[in-house]
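Shift notes (night). Ran Type-4 uracil-DNA glycosylase while the centrifuge was going.
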Amino acid sequence: MDLETLAKRYEQCTMCPLHQRRTQVVMGEGNPRSLLMIVGEGPGADEDRQGRPFVGKAGQLLNKILEAAEIPRQEIFITNIVKCRPPGNRTPRDEEMNTCISILRQQFVLIRPKIIVTLGAAPTRALIDPSARITRVRGKWVRRKGVLFMPTYHPAYLLRNPSAKRESWEDFKQIRDVYKKLLNNVSRQDEHEDGEPQ
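Came back to this:
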């Protein structure tokens, strides 16, 4: 199975009540073999309309952060913990996340990222620690089953609290450094394999 097949499987999803008011399921987008995956909370109005993650104001800020960190958006994979828009852009509820996380797990299996960045409290609680407070855990690496997790602030929070942008940028500098190191290791491995006698 690939990401396209997975998306088709869930395009009419009715597993939780969020399907009742959505326009479309927003599965995520990007490089299907990315070493870095970014997981946000849920689609907003712009995302629900366009069927793409992080295309509204928060998405534009995320693009700027990625650009400053020299991480091309098209090289990585971006998605959300829930794939349908919560009403009024509220935070996804635990039961919604617990239902939808099965889709995210299938995406993990297909993409096999080495770094997962959780944006905001909801994905941090769902993927790292149910009792996590984003203000306490942000900027600290957590390793699970060979994958590095980095919780940081959601760009929507940064738009409301511009003073937190500096902390977020410190987190993204760490993410950039580890990501580039992993990319270098992979390209060296590929060169080594290419250079082996047939």
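The mean pLDDT is 94. The helical segments are 3-10, 45-50, 57-68, 94-111, 121-127, 134-137, 155-160, 165-194.
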